[in-house]
Write a structure and sequence with these properties.
By secondary structure, this protein is mostly beta strands. 3% of the residues lie in helices and 42% in strands. It has a single domain, classed as Galactose-binding domain-like (Jelly Rolls). Strands 2-5-13-8-9-11-12 form a seven-stranded antiparallel sheet, with no helix packed on it. Strands 1, 3, 4, 7, 10 and 14 form a six-stranded antiparallel sheet that branches. Strands 6-15 form a two-stranded antiparallel sheet. The chain is globular, with a radius of gyration of 16 Å.
Length: 202
């Protein structure tokens, strides 16, 4: 059984040498939105999908009374397991040696994990996760060094271990903490996300 693997980065230039940036999403600097939709995307090349029994309450949040508060995805209101995935309209991505990098802040027991959908239609969730912190922080996950489990995307519940999945053509990339929300004291928050890997024309 693999332990949770979390790697921080020295600089973004080092990432670019390993794999090209496939997409980045920062969320629009607009008032809060419930639920989050395509209208909350800053990247016009992407589409957004919410998953799971808690998906309808995934929020694009923001607090104008908090100095430097980012616009971010928030799971605190989700009444069941949830996931959010992003898909580039023109291409899939080769994540064989890919990376996912994000800025996030979790509370309580929440552990934010990477979600992918392969070209074969299989959903997977990473064993690597980003846990609780007192402030926003940047984390990077090397996808060739993490373990994977099957993911029931309708329920957003993990299944059996998948050894050596084919990530050479991934249709969608996202995130989940595999839990319902518990307001501010038990939730996940994601400020931005970057996915690195060569584009594969669809």
């Amino acid at each position: 059984m693999r332990w949770i693997l979390l790697l921080s980065i020295c600089c973004s230039a080092a990432i670019a040498e390993d794999a090209p940036l496939f997409f980045r999403e920062d969320w629009t600097e607009t008032p809060p939105s419930l639920p989050a939709t395509d209208a909350d995307l800053t990247n016009a090349e992407l589409t957004l999908t919410r998953h799971g029994p808690g998906g309808s309450l995934i929020k694009k949040s923001f607090h104008d009374f908090k100095p430097k508060d980012p616009h971010y995805i928030w799971s605190g209101l989700c009444r069941g397991n949830w996931a959010l995935s992003l898909r580039r309209k023109d291409s899939d991505v080769d994540l064989t040696a890919g990376k996912v990098r994000w800025r996030a802040k979790q509370s309580g027991f929440r552990m934010l994990r990477v979600v992918v959908k392969t070209a074969a239609g299989k959903w997977l969730v990473s064993d690597a996760a980003d846990g609780a912190s007192d402030d926003w922080r940047v984390r990077e996950l090397d996808l060739d060094e993490v373990g994977w489990r099957e993911l029931n995307i309708e329920k957003v519940v993990e299944g059996r271990v998948v050894e050596g999945p084919d990530l050479s053509r991934v249709e969608a990339v996202g995130f989940t903490d595999l839990m319902s929300g518990g307001r501010s004291i038990a939730c996940s928050r994601l400020d931005w996300i970057e996915v690195y890997g060569p584009a594969v024309p669809r």
